[in-house]
Amino acid sequence: MAVSCWACCHTWAYTMSDISIDTLFQLTVLSPLDGRYATQTKPLRYWLSEAAFMRHRVTVEVYWLIALSHAGLPGIPDFSIPSEQFLLQLVEKFSLHDAARIKEIERVTNHDVKAVEYWLKESIKGQPELEHTNEFIHFACTSEDINNTAYALMLQGAREHVIQPALRAVHQRLIVLAHVHAKQSMLSRTHGQPASPTTLGKEIANVANRISYAIDRISSVSLLGKMNGAVGNFNAHLSAYPNFDWEGFARDFVQTRLGLTFNSYTTQIEPHDYIAELFDALARANTILLDLDRDLWGYISLGYFRQKINSEEIGSSTMPHKVNPIDFENSEGNLGLANAMLRHLADKLPVSRWQRDLSDSTVLRSIGLVFGYSLLAYDSLLRGLNKLEVNPNRINEDLNSCWEVLAEPVQTVMRRYKVENSYEQLKNLTRGKGITRDRLDAFISALEIPIEAKVQLLSMTPASYVGKAVELAQRID
Fold first, then answer.
1. 0.90 cut: is pTM over it?
2. How far apart are CA 365 and CA 80, in angstroms?
3. 149 in a domain, yes or no?
4. Which of 144, 168, 274, 437 has the most other CB atoms within 10 Å of its CB?
5. Matching Pfam families, A to Z (predicted)?
6. Catalytically annotated residues
7. DSSP letter assigned to residue 406
C-alpha cells in the first residue's frame, strides 16, 4: 500500500502490518498540531475540527426547524414529541460516519451547507411527519445564518471547555509558586542591570495578576450570532410570511435557544467584530505568557532555577551535561505562531467587500490552528513551571554581591533629614562601581542623621530591602 506525499506522483510505500493508522497519520499530516503534538491538542478536535463544524451546523439547522414548528406558522405543524426527539437525536448522536456522509454529498454539491441540508432530508426519511415538512429545513436561511452561529458555538465550546481551563491551570500554578516563594529575596534587574531587590514570589505574583485580568477579558467577550437572511433584512422571511415578527423570532432563537448574543445589524455575514475582539484578548494573554517564558529562560540561565531531571531524557546530542529550558522555548515559539495568526484573523475578519465576500470563510477554517498553538504553548509552559526548582544559594550570592542597590534607601533617608546633595553623594559613591558592606557602613556611620535612622540603615541588607514584596506575593489570589 502507499500514502500520497508531496504531489500526486510521489508516495510513501508501507504495509498495514508495519505501521498503525495513528502513527501513519501523525507521520504524514502537514500540521504538527495533528502530528507530533496530536495528544496535546486532542481536546480541541471536538470543538474546532471539520467534523465539529458539521455537527454545529446540524445543531443550528435542527434547532431552527424545531423553533419554526413551534412558531404557529401556516404550513408547518407543531411537531409531536417523537418527531422532535428524533431530530434532537440527530444532534446528540452525530458521529464521524455522519460527517463522512455529509462530505460525500458535498463532493457532488460543491457546497458544504447545502450538503448538511441534504443530509438532514436524507436522515428524516421514514419519519412521515418530518418528511411532510422537509422543505422547512434551512427555511429562509442563507448559508451564513448557519455558519456564523455554528462558529460562535464552536468558539464558545473551545473557550469554555479547553482554553480557559488551560489558562486557569497556568494561573493557579503561578499563584502557588508566588505563595511558596513569597519570602525568597531576589535581585531585580532593570535595563539588565542590578536594581532594588524584590522577592521571587512577588515577581511571579505580578504575572499571575496580569494573566488573571487577561482571562477575565477573554471570558467577557460576547459571542454574537445573526439569523436574518441573505443581506441581513429578512427579505425571504417576509416574502413567505409578511405579518410575522421575524426579527423578534430570530433574536429569541439566537439568544434563548443558542445562548448567543443577537446582532440586529449585519450584511449577509455577521461582521466578526466580536471574533476580532476575542482574538485580540487571547493574543494579549499569550503576550503576557511569552514575556514570562523569556524571563524564566533568563533566570534559568542565571542559575536562579534548576530544572527537575528526567534520567531518560537527553539535553544535547553531543554535550551530555545539558539540561535545556526547552519547555519555555517551545511555549515561546508556539505563542508566537498563535499570535501571528490571531492578529491576522483579527485584522482580516471584520473586512468584507460590500455585503460579503468569501475571504472570511477560508480563514475562519484556520481558527483551530490558533487555538491549537495556544493550547500547546500553555501545556509546555505548565510543564516547565512544574519542573522548576529554586536555587536559593545562587540567588543569595547575587544579592550579597550588590550592596550598591542600597544606595536608594540611604539617599532617600538622607533626603528625609534634609541632607544636602543626598542623591549626588550616593551617585558619586556607587554609580558604575561595586561597593562593599564595610564601605557603605562607614558612609552611613558618618552621616549627620538621627541615631535611630543610622541603626535602621546599618541593619539593612540587600535581602531585607524588599518593601511590601512579601505581603503582595502572599495575598495574590
1. yes
2. 37
3. no
4. 144
5. ASL_C, Lyase_1
6. 191, 316
7. G
How many other CB atoms are there within 10 angstroms of residue 7's CB atom? Answer: 7
Residue 394 pLDDT greater than 90, yes or no: yes
Does residue 254 form part of some domain?
A: no
Q: By C-alpha distance, which of 34, 62, 65, 50 is closest to 99?
A: 50
Task: Spell out the SS3 assignment of 411-448.
Answer: HHHHHHCCCCCHHHHHHHHHCCCCCCHHHHHHHHHCCC
pLDDT tens per residue across span 126-171: 999 999 999 999 999 999 999 999 999 999 999 999 999 999 999 9
Residue 265 within a domain = no
Per-residue pLDDT tens over the stretch 52-88: 999 999 999 999 999 999 999 999 999 999 999 999 9
* Phi, psi dihedrals of residue 313, rounded to the nearest 5°: -85, 160
pLDDT for 3 beyond 70: no
Can you read off the three cell numbers belonging to residue 440?
A: 557603605
CA 292 – CA 298 distance, rounded (Å): 10
Q: In 10 A of CB 249, how many CB atoms? A: 18
Please say if the pLDDT value at position 384 is more than 80: yes
Q: Are 136 and 68 in contact (CB under 8 A)?
A: yes
In three-state secondary structure terms, 194 is strand
Helices (runs of H) and strands (runs of E) counted in the chain: 22, 8
- The Cα 212–Cα 227 span in angstroms is 34
| CA pair distance 125, 280, nearest whole angstrom | 45
Residues in the chain: 477
**Same domain, residue pair 91 and 180:** no
